[in-house]
Design a protein that fits this description.
Layout lengths: L1 H8 L3 H77 L1 H23 L4 H68 L3 E12 L4 E4 L8 E8 L8 E10 L15 E4 L2 E4 L2 E7 L4 E8 L8 E8 L4 E9 L1
Length: 318
């Protein structure tokens, strides 16, 4: 019994060797696992640090890019503001070119929004500035020319006013002279005489009368005066006889018994034609209307041609 207990309490050398080998293997496993974990942790730590640094770099680059884009946008707005200042002043001249400016500006805005290469945006922006500066220079030149034209226009307006005054004066003088010539060329009649006549006997002898019931016809005689500056030729003579009520003695109201003088259309009592040769011309016309009862009172007689009122007279019947 004692022998058996001693064998269990004290392991044999072979057992001790086995136990030692197991412990050594376990230690290696533990150390390997720990080393692996350390390496994994190191790798993860490196990756985290690298990722954070890359993220910081991206954030920094984005901030710089935003600042650059903001700078470009501000410069673009400055160019457009300068252009619009001149455009508003010379809008009629820049109407066609405005589309070019706007197209370039829109393209630059699109490139900035797309975060296109900075150098490309800069080239486009510089080109736009050159275009606007070129237009501004042209506008300055146009402004200078415009100022010169304004001065010349003022001088021209003054010259036109002087010429207009002279023309007006000449027109008034011409009108006055034409009026004098027209007045000088006007025909006049004198010794205008209207005589009521009674016809007697078979031979219808003509006797003057002043009785209304005895009047058969009215004789109107006048002399068209000599006028060397009047236009010669065939002319019409018209006589209008107005009764005491103001009615014109006439054959009919038809237009064929009317004439036009100036703006007026007048009925006539009788009409005659004569050839005027710039010398005195004796003319007599007769009004006779059968079955006409003359009224007592004052009769007015007027004599005309197509252009002039020659004269007038009157007679009374009782």
């Amino acid at each position: 019994m004692d022998g058996n207990n001693n064998n269990r309490t004290n392991p044999s050398p072979q057992d001790r060797k086995s136990i030692t080998e197991v412990k050594n293997r376990n230690d290696k496993v533990y150390k390997g696992t720990i080393l692996t974990l350390v390496i994994v942790i190191g790798v993860l730590t490196f990756m985290l640090i690298t990722s954070r640094q890359a993220l910081d770099d991206v954030s920094t680059k984005k901030t710089v890019l935003d600042e650059v884009n903001l700078e470009l946008e501000e410069e673009l707005n400055s160019v457009l503001a300068e252009y619009n200042t001149f455009k508003n002043e010379y809008d009629s001249v820049l109407t066609q070119r405005d589309s070019v400016i706007r197209a370039n500006a829109q393209e630059i805005e699109t490139l900035i929004a797309q975060q296109t290469d900075y150098r490309r945006v800069r080239r486009q922006l510089n080109r736009l500035r050159e275009i606007t500066q070129e237009y501004v220079h042209e506008m300055d030149s146009l402004y200078t020319v415009n100022e010169v034209l304004k001065a010349e226009n003022v001088e021209m307006q003054e010259e036109i006013q002087r010429f207009t005054r002279q023309t007006t004066e000449l027109t008034e003088t011409k009108t006055e002279l034409e009026g004098r010539v027209e007045e000088a060329a006007a025909l006049r009649a004198y010794q205008v005489d209207a005589t009521p006549i009674r016809l007697r006997g078979r031979r219808e002898r003509q006797d003057e009368t002043d009785r209304a019931r005895r009047t058969d016809l009215i004789q109107v005689c006048f002399i068209v005066g000599e006028n060397p500056v009047a236009e010669p030729g065939l002319k019409n003579a018209y006589v209008r006889i107005a009764d005491p009520d103001g009615e014109i003695l006439r054959i009919s109201d038809d237009d064929m018994y009317s004439f036009v003088i100036g703006q007026d259309t007048l009925q006539y009592s009788m009409k005659g034609e004569f050839n005027y040769i710039n010398q005195d011309k004796d003319i007599c016309l007769y009004w006779q209307q059968y079955d006409y009862d003359y009224e007592e009172g004052l009769y007015l007689v007027s004599v005309f041609t197509d252009e002039f009122r020659l004269g007038e007279t009157q007679f009374s019947l009782r």
